From TrEMBL:
It comes from the Eukaryota. Its main location: membrane. Residues 9-128 form the Receptor ligand binding region domain. Gene3D superfamilies: 3.40.50.2300. Keywords: Membrane, Transmembrane, Transmembrane helix. The gene is Grin2d. Coiled coil: none annotated. This is NMDE4 protein. It is found in: Membrane.
Amino acid sequence: VPPPQEKGSTFLQLGSSTEQQLQVIFEVLEEYDWTAFAVVTTLSPGYEAFVDYVEVLTDSSFIGWEHRGVLTLNLTDDPEGTRLRRQLREVSAPIRLLYCSRDEAEAVFRAAREAGLAGPGYIWFVVGTNLAGSEELPEHL
């Protein structure tokens, strides 16, 4: 017996979309005149759309954004984080837009802290679809 058809179903989104998060981030960047930034992403589902939307926001703006490139991190096969620290050091902008999952964020920030890239002078904006979770944040975030 087929399941009954639902009529008038409603989808309720409780979190903000990636696009909404980026729009707010770009408003903050504009407000503080932080025009130079880099994108750092993992292979987390949706990362291509994230990169594409950053390009849409910068290309369609009258602000003179200085997009300093995209670094896509592959966190597998690097248990000590050696490659990750080296790659993060190669990013030339102090403003970094990071797209990743919650677990990946902990690994990225651990490596950033060990590489001296998480203190004063560095600003990270983290975007992701599943960053929420427990009330307690991991140590490196």
